[in-house]
Amino acid sequence: MTEIxxxxxxxxxxxxxxxxxxxxxxxxxxxxxxxxxxxxxxxxPGMVHAVLAVSSIAHGRVTALDAAAARAxxxxxxxxxxxxxxxxxxxxxAKLHPFMFRLDLLQNDAVRYANQPIxxxxxxxxxxxxxxxxxxxxxxxVETPRTHLDEAGGFLPQAVGAGQPASQSHGDVKAxxxxxxxxxxATYETPAQYHNAMEPHAILAAWDGDSLSIDTPSxxxxxxxxxxxxxxxxxxxxxxxRSPYLGGGFGSKGLVSGPQILGIMAARLVGRPVKLVLxxxxxxxxxxxxxxxxxxxxxGADGQGCLTALTHHxxxxxxxxxxxxxxxxxxxxxxxxxxxxxxxxxxVRLDSGTPLFMRAPGEAAGNAALxxxxxxxxxxxxMDPLAFRLKNYAEVEPxxxxxxxxxxxxxxxxxxxxxxxxxxxxxxxxxxxxxxxMLIGWGMGTAQFPAVMFQGQARAxxxxxxxGLVETxxxxxxxxxxxxxxxxxxDSLGLDLDKIEFRSGTSDLPDAGLAxxxxxxxxxxxxxxxxxxxxxxxxADLATGDQRSPLYGAGNLGVSARGGRLYRRDxxxxxxxxxxxxxxxxxxxxxxxxxxxADAAARAVYAMYAHGAVFAEVKVDPDLGxxxxxxxxxxxxxxxxxxxxxxxxxYYGGMIWGLSFALHEHAVLDRRSGRMMNxxxxxxxxxxxxxxxxxxxxxxxxxxxxxxxxxxxxxGEIAITGTAGAIAxxxxxxxxxxxxxxxxxxxxxxxxx
Length: 753
Ligand code: MOS
Known about the structure:
- The protein is of the alpha+beta class.
- The chain has three domains: 4-34 and 454-597, Aldehyde Oxidoreductase, domain 4 (2-Layer Sandwich), CATH 3.30.365; 40-143 and 201-277, Aldehyde oxidase/xanthine dehydrogenase, a/b hammerhead (Aldehyde Oxidoreductase, domain 3); 290-452 and 604-748, Aldehyde oxidase/xanthine dehydrogenase, molybdopterin binding domain (Aldehyde Oxidoreductase, domain 4, 2-Layer Sandwich).
- 23% of the residues lie in helices and 23% in strands.
- It is built from 15 helices and 27 strands.
- Strands 3-5-1-12-9-10-11 form a seven-stranded mixed β-sheet, sandwiched between helices. A five-stranded mixed β-sheet has the order 7-15-14-13-8, with helices on both faces. The chain has a five-stranded mixed β-sheet with strand order 16-17-25-26-27, with helices on both faces.
- The protein is globular and about 85 Å long.
- It starts with 27 loop residues before the first helix and ends in an 18-residue tail after the last helix.
- The protein binds dioxothiomolybdenum(VI) ion.
- The site of dioxothiomolybdenum(VI) ion has 11 residues, from loops.
């Protein structure tokens, strides 16, 4: 990978010494030394091991389980089945709100998907529990599973994604199509993909009466606490969750999953601390996935290459027993200007686990299809793909007509294209070859992701010795959130970073909301910023109201805080240390709190998105059809950059996931049995280092005065978008073959030579 330097981010809105610095990961050394303790690394005294038994059929009923054989195995303590599960206070099939997902918790003998938990074996050792589970020898009544998007019975969902409408439109699509000089229609397929975090879902649960202590990875401890409290009928404050490190979440740890709850139930049943860790293949079912889609786009354009109409319809799968609908078509409602746009979704019920949010939910699959269709339309209009996108640049959000709070997409196109060397690209395919005879292709795609915020809280304390403490129950799932939050904390209190103690990762701290939707930095960052401002405001009151202070009479707005001192704004020579102010006031500490949340008034006026442009080079073997990505250049604008090193790493990760989407990931279901055929890392391909080329991520400067007080938009997911389409378009440019089914595999390119 190219090493680049990190210029001090000039995009930041706030003055301060920490925000904008490319600091290394706070917990990086712990992780590389193996000293970071993940949930499954805990082994308290008296702990026993639980192992899930999962169904080998996708639809039907368990008719027999040989629990006696398992119980008789040496070391086995108990076998939890529907006959002896501890009672729950809430039916796990209840859906009191849209984000209460139905969970399979051994309430009956029904099997709703392959790899569904059907029993839990608890034993003194992991080996004994594993052996016991193998002795259960389940028998089934098998019903024919529904396994494919072609199953009959597509229905109009009530909502898609996180509660967005299933269809939206503006303008007159029919008239736009009729007026078009050029029209295309194309259908793209994207497969089911599974969240394959390095760390599988794991839980260590220990009951003490009606109090529950849990080590488990969670992207949202507050929501997890509420869900667990409801299921077990205990007050949320009786639950203590520790989630210091996540080995990746990608959405699958956003809501507490069935297997995690089963670990808690097993601990209740045996009255000892229980550890339950999913095996890799058990993650293909009960913890969510990205649903397969089939997306049809139609476009019309006039003689100048301006879109006259755009439609995007997505057919997607959900489970037989719950509703999550991948919002793929939404990718088209805000990216390109068109006088008429219509997006719509339909869902099909399959006998699979319920799909869930997965890294750029909706956008990843939807943008891949949209960006391929834009490439096809550019060709139909005989235009360069970048020129075609610029021609249809949306100056306002197309559906709503709202202005963007900021949009540096043009700069992303310019800087990305310049760095990649896009100029001079031959428009026709199959025009470039290397010395070895490999076909070379260049493609591009636009990236876009909404600037989401949830709600989160933080607490800040300034201590008498002039040091600060900032606390929030936030999640670092590897993205570097804690490093960025400590930087924001330092600036919010006007302290150097080494004077700040930052505590996070447990559920007794202020609820930081959900680490998802690329909204964690914005949400928690604003909460920390506000908590610090609350403290500094109180400190300023103490000083400016005290005749003995050099700041006397300056008023709250008349002081600034940095380096552990308050300064008069009108006279920087007059200042006082925090410690002196507190000491004279006889105070040990000052505490403040802050909340981060979306500003509804600003969002009523402005559309808020991060943007980017991705350029890809591929080489295709003309004889074998093998595709190698050789270069990726992305340029992204996402408002204020708190830590350019962490953000660049997020962009790399996103682009690698885009590559994975384009060429690798594909969960293969056996259509007769409904069983997953590649539920392992040998057959479910994710990119390894050898698959990843030179990657560059350009951090494009952008100031956003409306999105939130820090100007932060979010960087976690955007780089997946743009990339998958860019690679697919490069494959076309290399070969002249348009593959509309992801992942693009060599069998689809046979004959490319
Ligand atoms: Mo994500 S799918 O917002 O963890």
